[in-house]
Design brief:
The chain is of the alpha+beta class and 721 residues long. The chain has five domains: 92 residues, Alpha-Beta Plaits (2-Layer Sandwich); 229 residues, no CATH class; 86 residues, Calcium-transporting ATPase, cytoplasmic transduction domain A, CATH 2.70.150.10; 143 residues, 3-Layer(aba) Sandwich (Rossmann fold), CATH 3.40.50; 98 residues, Calcium-transporting ATPase, cytoplasmic domain N (3-Layer(aba) Sandwich), CATH 3.40.1110.10. It has 26 helices and 26 strands. Strands 14-26-25-24-15-22-23 form a seven-stranded mixed beta sheet, with helices on both faces. A six-stranded antiparallel beta sheet has the order 6-5-7-13-8-11, with no helix packed on it. Helix 24 links the parallel strand 25 and strand 26. Helix 8 packs parallel to helix 14 and helix 15 packs across helix 25. It is elongated.
């Protein structure tokens, strides 16, 4: 489902004012290179306009186009502009940005498949209506030349339509037979081909009945089911490819030269500037800074990095330049190993067998046996091959799995429509069935149960202290400083000699005193600074500004609803022990784990699965992708990183987690409706099969029976709405 692409001038006036006009004015600035950026925080037309305006203001940028759906930008520049310049400019404008490697991104084909099925469905429906109108004359008693004429006209309409519209069934059946197995498309294809073939034979022999209308009805109803099934999915890229695309393609050597990461060797020294992502796994040999590890660990606060500390590909250097010795590059980095883990988990999940597939394995051979039995029995009883083949074809048509083919897609479409109205988008074809089976839920913390943004909680500062703190905070890019600047309502003081001390904080001069805002040990404070930043003015006692991560809307309700639905609830986070404990106590989760690494998260989910539990994983970060892929079913918020959204089976479109409880109940109801539809199909077959075997099924009866069973299945599915 496509939500919004890069707006055209006709589609989005908000995006044409400014950036597009400015780009058009740069007649002589054609760029020689294209840089691709990930923009995980953009969410509206205003963001598109702001990002494009910030990029087009950079000298050397010829054009910038933003895709809101994929949260990416394509920037055309000359050779003097690098990705770091672009990401730094966007950071100054308030937008988080990361460079992407476009060569590693997978293509999307889901929308093209839906359009193809819809086109074939339209052709089949148009032809079916016309052939049924012609059949009315035959059913009304037309004879001899008139009947033959209507049959030949029907053949002229039906044969090319079947050849075109039924191709999806023919291709799938051919693949199954080439592998020496049966699937639902084998009896479907056989019924369509035999109905068309026998109809041509009967028409040529001036027979009383032809099956063109039945063959087209089969094709139309089954294409409708296939299209509904396709529409429950989204264009599914591989999350492993998304992770690979997050790797930085270039690095800067210690001597200042830029090289491809693939050309680096173990032991090489590289420079990682403030604001840049680390391109390799390595060890810091020089410099002091703070590292944002949220992508890999989910840790909400930056960590100090200095000589001897390890850094990993994908982490962001915040405050000071670092010299890093390469210990792993390319396919050996932590990020690449995580991509491999996700790839293996995706492959494992794709082997899930849906209810329809399991029904088809039983149903398909039964249909063939019945049709062959009808032919053999009537040939033995009557000795008339033509009569026997007609009855066999009628049996194949009337028992063809039309209702069975609609049973799952009709329910999935009704359920996905209800979930979408409640703010939950279903991406994977079997996600509903797997969600109905879930008995355990594992939550990530930062960005999932919480908003992932620190909020000032309390302090003991005076107004003058607040003014100084506000001035210092405005000069820093540290997340706690940004939160402080945002949440303090007092006008900032006038400071002099402001400078940032990488890895420690920021200091300045105020009224002759040195003032500092930063780490507890740097300002001379004693205590746990896990969620605090400290202010010291001259020789005064340090003042603590404490923060907490605000609970996401609907989080408490979701946890309660899932627990009431019988699911065991776990909290697994890469965040600190204290932060996870406070949240677990606030929201009422008894089983929690802190400081968990990405591979440990995936291993925890795998351990639960090995114990026979079917896990629903809810997470948003790069560190969650392995666990999301490993889980029986997974959900991510719309604000999640591209890779997390891609690997997830469902995406929460709104800010609230409240729809999770209703989603589980809807999925369980959907599974019941699917089983009821199978019951309807079974009841239909128990009545229709004896009629067909007795030779009493005319083409009109077959068409009516198929239509009736399909309508009953659809009406039962609509009860979910």
């Amino acid at each position: 489902m496509s939500l919004a692409e890069t707006p055209s001038p006709q589609a989005c006036p908000a995006c044409t004012a400014g950036p597009v006009a400015e780009a058009a004015a740069r007649a002589g600035g054609a760029g020689d290179q294209r840089l691709h950026l990930s923009l995980p925080t953009i969410h509206c037309a205003g963001c598109i306009s702001g990002v494009e305006r910030a990029l087009l203001a950079i000298p050397g940028v010829a054009d910038a186009r933003v895709n809101l759906t994929q949260k990416r930008a394509v920037v055309r520049t000359d050779e003097s502009v690098d990705a770091e310049t672009l990401t730094r400019a966007l950071a100054d404008a308030g937008y988080e940005a990361h460079e992407l490697d476009p060569g590693a991104l997978a293509a999307t084909t889901g929308d093209a498949a839906s359009r193809d099925l819809l086109m074939r469905l339209g052709v089949a429906g148009f032809a079916m209506m016309n052939v049924m109108l012609l059949s009315v004359a035959v059913w009304s008693g037309a004879t001899d030349a008139t009947r033959d004429l209507f049959h030949w006209i029907s053949a002229a309409i039906a044969i090319p339509t079947i050849a075109f519209s039924a191709q999806p069934f023919f291709r799938n059946a051919a693949r199954a037979l080439s592998a020496w197995r049966l699937n639902m498309d084998v009896p479907i294809s056989l019924a369509i081909l035999l109905a068309a073939g026998m109809s041509i034979f009967e028409t040529a022999e001036s027979g009383h009945h032809a099956y063109f209308d039945a063959a087209l009805s089969l094709t139309f109803f089954l294409l409708a089911g296939r299209y509904l099934d396709q529409r429950t999915r989204t264009a599914a890229r591989s999350a492993a490819a998304e992770l690979t695309a997050l790797e930085v393609p270039r690095a800067t050597r210690a001597d200042g030269t830029s090289v491809n990461v693939a050309d680096l060797a173990l032991g090489d020294l590289i420079l990682v500037r403030p604001g840049a992502r680390v391109p390799v796994d390595g060890e810091v040999t020089g410099g002091t800074s703070e590292i944002d590890r949220a992508l890999l660990t989910g840790e909400s606060l930056p960590e100090r990095a200095s000589a001897g500390d390890a850094v990993h590909a994908g982490e962001i250097n915040l405050t000071g330049p670092l010299t890093v010795r390469v210990t792993a590059a390319g396919r050996e980095t932590t990020l690449s190993r995580l991509a491999d883990l996700v790839s293996m988990a995706e492959t494992s999940k794709s082997r899930y067998s849906s209810l329809a597939d399991r029904a088809a394995r039983i149903y398909a051979p039964v249909v063939h046996i019945l049709a062959f039995a009808a032919f053999a029995g009537w040939l033995y009883a009557s000795g008339d091959p033509r009569l026997s083949l007609n009855i066999a074809v009628a049996t194949l048509i009337i028992t063809c799995p039309c209702a069975l083919g609609l049973a799952v897609p009709a329910v999935s479409t009704a359920a996905s429509g209800r979930m979408f109205r409640n703010g939950l988008l279903i991406k994977h074809a079997t996600a509903l069935e797997r969600l109905a089976e879930a008995d355990t839920v594992v939550f990530d913390k930062t960005g999932t149960l919480t908003e992932g943004r620190p909020v000032l909680h309390n302090h003991d500062a005076s107004n003058s202290d607040l003014a100084v703190a506000a001035a210092l905070a405005e000069a820093s890019a540290h997340p706690l400083a940004e939160a402080l600047a945002r949440d303090i309502a007092v006008p900032a003081a006038r400071l002099a000699d402001i400078r940032e001390v990488p890895g420690h904080g920021i200091e300045a001069t105020w009224k002759g005193d040195i003032v500092r805002l930063g780490r507890a040990d740097w300002v001379g404070a004693a205590g746990d600074e896990g969620t605090a930043t400290w202010l010291r003015i001259g020789l005064n006692d340090p003042v603590a500004f404490r923060f907490r991560d605000r609970l996401r809307e609907g989080a408490a309700e979701a946890v309660t609803a899932l627990r009431n639905a019988g699911l065991g609830v776990h909290l697994v986070s890469g965040d600190s022990q204290r932060a996870v404990l406070l949240l677990a106590e606030e929201i009422g989760i008894a089983d929690w784990r802190a400081s968990v690494k990405p591979d440990e998260k995936a291993a925890f989910v795998e351990d639960l699965a090995n114990q026979g539990q079917r896990v629903l994983m809810v997470g948003d970060g790069l560190n969650d992708t392995g666990a999301l892929a490993m889980a029986h079913v997974s959900i991510s918020p719309a604000t999640a990183l591209d890779a997390a959204r891609t690997v997830s089976d469902m995406v929460l479109l709104g800010a609230s987690l409240a729809p999770l409880g209703d989603a589980v109940q809807t999925a369980r109801n959907a599974k019941r409706r699917i089983l009821e539809n199978f019951g309807i199909a079974a009841a239909y077959n128990s009545i229709s099969i004896p009629i067909a075997l007795a030779g009493l099924a005319t083409p009109l009866a077959a068409a009516l029976a198929m239509s009736t069973s399909s309508i009953l299945v659809t009406l039962n599915a609509l009860r979910l709405r």
